[in-house]
Design goal:
Elements lengths: L9 H19 L1 H22 L1 H4 L2 H26 L7 H12 L2 H4 L3 H24 L5 H20 L4 E2 L5 H8 L1 E2 L2 E2 H19 L1 H11 L1 H6 L4 H27 L1 E2 L7 H11 L11 H20 L4 H26 L2
Antiparallel strand pairs: 1-4, 2-3
Helix pairs in contact: 1-11, 2-15, 4-10, 4-11, 4-13, 4-14, 4-15, 5-7, 5-8, 5-13, 7-8, 7-13, 9-13, 10-11, 11-13, 14-15
């Protein structure tokens, strides 16, 4: 007798197909978007050259732009993973502040700069892990869980520092050298930022973890049927975001020579906005590291142009808000055009 033909299990087959299509979306959709972002960057550069040529096109201003982008940029890399995975993290600025305060306490500083850096990374990763546990296993909505962490982390930072700015002691000056030491005219902290971006790109585009992130964000149920532990992966995404906050805390301590509960104010909005402008869907399943960094550079350039031209800070916030709204509307329009 002829053996009957065996067919693949429909749910598993659908899951595999869904994951593959999500990966294709994640890797292929961004090319035109990136060209548009590069065009926007070029336009902002032209505006800077026309309005403030004597101040904009200088080495010191370029270094200032890159240094400002570095701290938020590291956070943006973590935020990109979380949002592609279908989540949101509102606590990144507060977690960074908590990590900077914890690392600059006298007890921690007495062990030297290496221990301070390790402390910042562990505090950030730990806070992110708590977020992940609450969301993945506690079934809390990401918005609520990370909002609670935002409030709690900021409050804990204020309590630990007694609402005072903590200075880095002279014997730990080697940590500050990340900001003052330059290679080819560029501070070391910018190279750290570049390294984080490269590692983030490799993990997202060349590893199983990255492919699973697209799958979980695009269709969690299909990802589960394909054999992905969705809850575990979600937890790891938030831990990764916390790790990036810890690294960002090291960079901001190097830049300001302080740890403070006020560090990172509104950084979560800048990071999320950069990710959205870069083309990552708020619903998850699609996005790129390159797009997020281009979005970050656009925001940083806008801030720089406002400062150079002496424009009001409130007007800057209004402009950023309008950019976010336009970016989301363009996303919705593109999704409708792609829909069958």
């Amino acid at each position: 007798m002829t053996e009957p033909t065996r067919h693949a299990d429909p749910p598993a087959e659908a899951a595999a197909t869904g994951s593959a299509s999500i990966r294709n979306l994640g890797s292929g959709f961004g090319e035109m978007r990136h060209l548009g972002l590069l065009g926007a960057l070029a336009l902002l550069i032209v505006v800077g050259l026309v309005t403030r040529p004597e101040n904009f096109a200088t080495t010191s201003n370029l270094v200032s732009i890159l240094s400002l982008a570095a701290t938020i940029g590291v956070i943006t890399v973590g935020a990109t993973f979380v949002i592609i995975g279908g989540g949101i993290d509102l606590s990144v600025g507060a977690v960074m502040a908590l990590a900077s305060v914890w690392a600059t306490t006298l007890a921690t500083q007495s062990y030297g700069p290496v221990v301070m850096a390790i402390c910042a990374v562990l505090v950030g990763t730990g806070a992110g892990l708590v977020n992940g546990l609450l969301i993945a296993y506690g079934r809390l909505v990401p918005f609520i869980a990370t909002l609670a962490m935002l409030v709690a982390a900021r409050g804990l930072a204020q309590r630990m520092s007694d609402r005072k700015t903590q200075l880095i002691q002279a014997e730990n000056a080697s940590l500050v050298e990340l900001s003052t030491t330059r290679v080819l005219g560029i501070p070391l902290l910018v190279y750290i930022f570049a390294l984080v971006v490269v590692l983030g790109w490799v993990v997202l585009n060349r590893t199983t973890f990255g492919r699973r992130t697209y799958a979980v964000g695009g269709n969690p149920e299909a990802a589960r049927l394909a054999g992905i532990d969705v809850r575990r992966h979600t937890m790891l995404l938030y831990a990764l975001s916390g790790l990036c906050c810890g690294i960002a805390a090291i960079l901001i301590m190097a830049r300001t020579t302080t740890g403070s509960s006020t560090h990172g104010d509104l950084y979560e909005l800048d990071a999320i906005a950069a990710v959205i402008i870069g083309g990552t869907l708020l619903t998850g399943g699609r996005g790129t590291i390159v797009g997020s960094i281009l979005g970050l550079l656009i925001f940083t350039l806008i801030t720089n142009l406002f400062i150079l031209n002496g424009l009001n800070t409130s007007d800057q916030l209004i402009a950023k808000g309008l950019i976010i709204v336009v970016a989301v509307l363009l996303q919705r329009r593109n999704l409708k055009e792609r829909a069958p």
